[in-house]
């Protein structure tokens, strides 16, 4: 009787690690493919007016607090940076970084930045806009402690909703 019990216990012990391993494999989050990222980073606008779209993009970026360091209308390229002082109590950065300021300061983070690049490309009789955002957390020496791409689809949807409005206002000459 004891031998049967020990044999059953032995078999059960062998089976547990296998099932635990299988559960871990099932829970693994696969990284997003480049095509998946590109789909929510891109929007097509029904206009052939590239300067209008470029101006709308610049207006939205500036409204959102980005400093535009480079804009090339010929290439349709825009580069900007938005900086946050993590010690400033009046600024909420949890939406962009998902961390509280106290947690950032505890980890020695003094500056948080979001960099963006955008390109506006003629696409038949339309304009195609692709934008991406990258987050960086910098310590007191200016060294990057953390860098990652913003892969939140709603973040891009919110941004493009503002661009939609800006293009509408530009067309209405408001």
Can you walk through the features of this model?
By secondary structure, the chain is of the alpha+beta class. The protein has a single domain, classed as TATA-Binding Protein (2-Layer Sandwich). Helix content is 44%, strand content 31%. It is built from six helices and six strands. Strands 1, 2, 3, 4, 5 and 6 form a six-stranded antiparallel beta sheet that branches. A hairpin with a 4-residue loop joins β2 (67-72) and β3. Residues 12-23 have low confidence and may be disordered.
* Number of strand segments: 6
- CATH domain class name: Alpha Beta
Mean pLDDT: 84
State the order of secondary-structure elements, H for helix, E for strand.
HHEHEEHHEEEH
Unreliable runs: 12-23
Overall number of domains? 1
The CATH architecture is: 2-Layer Sandwich
* Bulk shape: globular
Count the DSSP helices.
6
Helix content: 40-55%
Radius of gyration from the CA trace?
Answer: 24 Å
For this structure, the CATH topology is TATA-Binding Protein
Major beta sheet, specifics? 6 strands, antiparallel
| CATH homologous superfamily designation | Kinase associated domain 1, KA1
Summing up helix and strand content along with how strands pair, one would put the structural category as: alpha+beta
| Terminus-to-terminus distance | 88 Å
Instruction: Estimate what percentage of residues fall within beta strands.
Output: 25-35%
Give me some keywords for this one.
31% strand, 6 strands, 6-stranded antiparallel beta sheet, alpha+beta, TATA-Binding Protein, 174 residues, globular
């Amino acid at each position: 009787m004891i031998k049967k019990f020990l044999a059953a216990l032995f078999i059960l012990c062998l089976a547990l690690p296998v099932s635990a391993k299988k559960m871990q494999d099932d829970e693994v989050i696969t990284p997003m493919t480049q095509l998946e990222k590109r789909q929510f980073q891109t929007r097509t606008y029904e206009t052939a007016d590239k300067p209008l779209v470029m101006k709308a993009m610049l207006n939205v970026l500036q409204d959102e607090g980005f400093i535009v360091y480079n804009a090339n209308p010929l290439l349709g390229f825009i580069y900007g940076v938005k900086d946050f002082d993590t010690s400033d109590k009046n600024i909420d950065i949890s939406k962009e970084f998902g961390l509280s300021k106290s947690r950032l300061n505890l980890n020695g983070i003094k500056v948080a930045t979001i960099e963006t690049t955008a390109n506006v490309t003629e696409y038949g009789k339309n304009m195609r806009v692709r934008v991406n955002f990258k987050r960086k957390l910098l310590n007191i020496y200016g060294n990057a402690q953390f860098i990652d791409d913003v892969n939140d689809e709603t973040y891009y949807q919110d941004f493009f909703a503002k661009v939609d409005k800006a293009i509408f206002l530009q067309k209405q000459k408001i």
